[in-house]
């Protein structure tokens, strides 16, 4: 369990590598815990009380999540809210872990002062009980940071001199940032990268409307749904391990690195801010059961992945939250978040997180059904000045269904009175889908031996052919058998 001396020598090897051309490489860390954490945007917690933090921690932990990566930016409440999060975890005393994910798109990093801020925050919490550690060192991650020089001549020198090898923090941090760079250049970050976090690996970024003719040639992107061949082509990208492989290979080139690899898993992505606000209007394709497909990939490759970071717990503005709607929303995002519950995604997390951590699928003691869909046809044309989000064409007009089944059975899906289809269900994980009709809703009925086990309807959800604005967020519902 404790390999402190190995870690210290890893640091020395990293330092030695600056002057010694001989390749030095340490074995992959055995002290890195195999855990699942979730990205928590502290910037949306200005109004949190300690009880808000406790309820988030308890809900996350009840769903197989072992910690929060605290995404902190340049907010006046960063230190006070981080302290409340740590107090909440300390009071619960349930083993929940916390660590910083410094948001370098917000924190200043063009001068040495920026490094001082990171060191000060790190050291303020490093010895608190909930701090995630690797062999006694504080685990520290980032969002971005690939352009930070901290006043040095280049980025690697900046991170090295102002953070990982600075006298305040040297030997005290295990640094696993998410730099958005070509992993082939990781080898220039000797003495910086103990590992890497692949933030974008949760989504199929390799496919876009622009390259669809090459990547998914049989998917007619103008159509509401695609041919079976087009879907098969999509499935090669959705949840795929290729982005992980390039990171893992890149880390292998970093002399002296522990090569800790943290992968991402995400349920969805849609953001819709106009040029007058954040000017972000795009989707990543979450179809083909991305949330489950990605987990299945991570389970299949679990020997190559140290940690999984769920993206995210509460990033409402980008629609990839799995936590409940509380705290603040980025201004304007209530238009696509209000009423769009993602607890269906959360409800699937424990099963896959447990399987990732242990290598064994947990026993399914109750049947579970989750349904989700977007709220309007992909080709709807609302009078929305922001315009349609980039790459919306990749989506299909479908409802997506997942059944965790205790035994074999049947699932009947329908969106209207006249489009029901019945699918065989086998014990374990089942992924189904059905085209969703304009004005349709979500309805799934799980039966076994002639008995209804689950009858799940999405209440007031309507697939509205005439929406007043673009909304490509997902609406989820879920139910378990009694
Ligand atoms: C459905 O109804 C609930 C409760 O009245 C409401 O909060 C939610 O916004 C509605 N959802 C949609 C998609 O209209
Ligand atoms: C959807 O419902 C609206 C309102 O009831 C109706 O006017 C419209 O014709 C329906 N569209 C379809 C495609 O069924």
Outline of the structure:
Helix content is 25%, strand content 22%. It is of the alpha/beta class. The protein is globular and about 70 Å long.
Spans of at least 5 consecutive residues with low confidence: 1-27
How many discrete domains? 2
Order of helices and strands: HEHEHEHEEHEEHHHEEEHEHHEEEEEEEE
- Our estimate of the beta-strand percent is 15-25%
Q: Ligands in the structure?
A: 2-acetamido-2-deoxy-beta-D-glucopyranose
The CATH superfamily of the largest domain is identified as Glycosidases
By CATH, the architecture of the largest domain is named: Alpha-Beta Barrel
**Shape summary:** globular
Q: Mind telling me the C-alpha Rg?
A: 23 Å
So what's the CATH class of the largest domain? Answer: Alpha Beta
How is the biggest beta sheet arranged?
9 strands, mixed
CATH fold-level name of the largest domain:
TIM Barrel
Average pLDDT rating: 93
Query: What structural class do you assign from the helix and strand content?
Result: alpha/beta
Describe this structure in words.
It is a single chain. Strand 17 and strand 18 (451-457) form a beta hairpin. The protein has helices at residues 4-16, 50-62, 78-92, 112-125, 155-164, 212-215, 228-235, 242-252, 290-300, 334-337, 343-358; strands at 36-41, 67-72, 97-103, 133-134, 137-143, 173-176, 195-197, 260-265, 270-273, 280-283, 307-310, 368-373, 398-405, 409-414, 421-425, 428-435, 443-448, 451-457, 475-480. The model is unreliable at 1-27 (pLDDT under 50). It is globular, with a radius of gyration of 23 Å. The two termini are 41 Å apart. The protein folds into two domains: 35-204 and 239-358, TIM Barrel; 368-480, Immunoglobulin-like (Sandwich). It is of the alpha/beta class. 25% of the residues lie in helices and 22% in strands. Strands 1, 2, 3, 4, 5, 6, 7, 8 and 11 form a nine-stranded mixed beta sheet that branches. A four-stranded antiparallel beta sheet has the order 16-13-12-19, covered by helices on one side. One 2-acetamido-2-deoxy-beta-D-glucopyranose binds at residues 338-339, 459-461, 475. It holds the Pfam family Glyco_hydro_71. GO terms for molecular function: glucan endo-1,3-alpha-glucosidase activity.
């Amino acid at each position: 369990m404790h390999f402190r001396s190995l870690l210290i020598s890893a640091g020395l090897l990293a330092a030695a590598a600056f002057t010694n051309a001989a390749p030095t490489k340490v074995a992959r860390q055995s002290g890195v815990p195999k855990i699942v954490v979730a990205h928590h945007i502290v910037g949306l917690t200005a109004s949190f009380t300690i009880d808000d933090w406790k309820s988030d921690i308890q809900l996350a932990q009840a769903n197989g999540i072992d910690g929060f990566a605290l995404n902190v930016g340049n907010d006046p409440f960063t230190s006070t809210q981080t302290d409340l999060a740590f107090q909440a975890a300390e009071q619960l005393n349930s083993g929940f872990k916390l660590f910083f994910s410094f948001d370098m798109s917000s924190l200043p990093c063009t001068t040495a002062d920026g490094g001082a801020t990171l060191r000060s925050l790190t050291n303020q919490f490093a010895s608190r009980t909930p701090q995630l550690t690797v062999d006694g060192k504080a685990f520290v991650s980032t969002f971005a940071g690939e352009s930070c020089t901290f006043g040095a001549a280049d980025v690697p020198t900046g991170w090295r001199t102002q953070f990982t090898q600075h006298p305040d923090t040297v030997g005290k941090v295990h640094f696993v940032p998410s730099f958005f760079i070509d992993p082939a250049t990781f080898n220039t970050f000797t003495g910086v990268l103990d590992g890497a976090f692949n933030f974008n690996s949760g989504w199929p970024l390799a496919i876009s409307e622009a390259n669809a003719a090459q990547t998914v040639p049989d998917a007619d992107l103008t159509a509401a749904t695609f041919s079976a061949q087009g879907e098969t082509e999509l499935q090669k990208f959705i949840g795929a391990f290729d982005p992980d492989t390039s990171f893992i290979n890149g880390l292998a080139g970093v002399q002296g690195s522990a090569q800790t690899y943290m992968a991402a898993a995400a349920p969805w992505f849609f953001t819709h801010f106009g040029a007058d606000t954040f000017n972000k209007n795009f989707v990543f394709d979450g179809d083909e059961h991305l949330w489950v497909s990605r987990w299945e990939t991570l389970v299949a490759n679990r020997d190559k992945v140290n940690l999984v970071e769920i993206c995210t717990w509460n990033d409402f503005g980008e629609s990839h939250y799995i936590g409940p709607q509380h705290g603040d929303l980025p201004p304007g995002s209530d238009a696509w978040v209000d009423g769009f519950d993602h607890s269906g995604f959360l409800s699937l997390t424990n099963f896959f997180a447990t399987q990732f951590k242990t290598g064994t699928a947990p026993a399914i003691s109750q049947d579970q059904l989750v349904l989700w869909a977007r709220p309007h046809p992909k080709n709807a044309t609302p009078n929305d000045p922001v315009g349609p989000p980039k790459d919306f064409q990749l989506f299909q007009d479908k409802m997506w269904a997942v059944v965790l089944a205790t035994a074999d059975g049947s699932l009947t899906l329908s969106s209207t009175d006249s489009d029901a289809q019945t699918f065989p269900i086998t014990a374990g994980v089942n992924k189904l889908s059905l085209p969703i009709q304009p004005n349709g809703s979500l309805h799934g009925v799980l039966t076994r031996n002639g008995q209804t086990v689950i009858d799940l309807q999405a209440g007031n959800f309507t697939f509205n052919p005439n929406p007043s604005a673009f909304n490509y967020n997902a609406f989820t519902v879920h139910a378990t058998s009694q």
